[in-house]
Amino acid sequence: MMAPPPRWVRRLVVAPLVVVLALVMVPTTLMLALVVGAALTWVLPGRLRTLRLLWMIAFYVVWDALALLAMLGLWIASGCGLLAGRPWYRRAHVRLARGMLALFFWQVRWTLRLRIVVDAAPGVEIPDAPLVVVSRHAGPGDSFILIDRLLGLTGRAPAVVLKDTLQWDPAIDVLLHRLPSAFVTPSSRRREGQAGARETVERIAAGLTSDEALVLFPEGGNITARRRTGRIAALRERGHEELARQAEAMGNVMAPHAGGFQAALDGAPDAAVLVVAHTGLERLVTVGDIWRELPMDKSIVLGGWLHPASGVPRDDVAREAWLFEQWRVVDAWIGERTPTV
């Protein structure tokens, strides 16, 4: 995806355009969806796929605009940013994120017939300490799902490190710049002296409090045959033959990158670690996959394992081996619930 424009362009041009588009779409969306959706659905077979897709696109634009207007209101209430450093300002944005995600997934359940089930051991308590969450990455929207569950089940404010291209979405752009999160520029476009992913993760982790959670996706992207093979080859080039063999044996996940995880624990050595697995969306890789599956009629199952800080190694080599061991557990968990992808 193309690199995002400068911040002033995103704030003064892109964000207002989304709001204007939403205002135009509100009175016309239903009629457009009914007329165009009905016509195209007659041409393209399926269970109202076109109608559902048009509706979700329109809903997302309006949802994005509502979030932008709410954050504009919070900015004005803070004295146009003069009081933005106060605790109430961050809490208000966490509550806003929780409410907007609840609204989004209510619509997803209704339009796409998608259910989210949490398969976790009862009675597990999150310690009063910073939390580092490492999750597999598979399927569209899984980061939204994970953050929604973190907000809803643990009450933790999410801290996320994302690719800078996600700043094209105005609501995500504004919200995460007001929470302890960051956008990272790929090395191919990074300016000299600009912080990379590892430095950024360590900086954010060092500032974590006991009511926040840093979310990482060590695989770095959805699993594909090319990425999986390349990751295994890279391990062998580094001389990690044993880890490469483990990666070859894991059919449902890719070998994780350990750098971000190691940086997070360097920044927050007292953090507990929550390992998250999920299944239900891994076969949705391309736009064609998503189109064929509409409506999805799926259940997304999430599972998790909590490890106290004392149970995680302290040196980088041992941490990488420990992370691979956790990924073997994730692979087995997925294998029990779905065929190998």
Automatic annotation (TrEMBL):
The keyword Membrane applies. Keywords: Acyltransferase, Membrane, Transferase, Transmembrane, Transmembrane helix. SMART domains: PlsC. SUPFAM superfamilies: Glycerol-3-phosphate (1)-acyltransferase. InterPro entries: Plipid/glycerol_acylTrfase. The chain crosses the membrane at residues 12-45, 57-84. Residues 131-281 form the Phospholipid/glycerol acyltransferase domain. This is Acyltransferase-like protein. It comes from Isoptericola halotolerans.
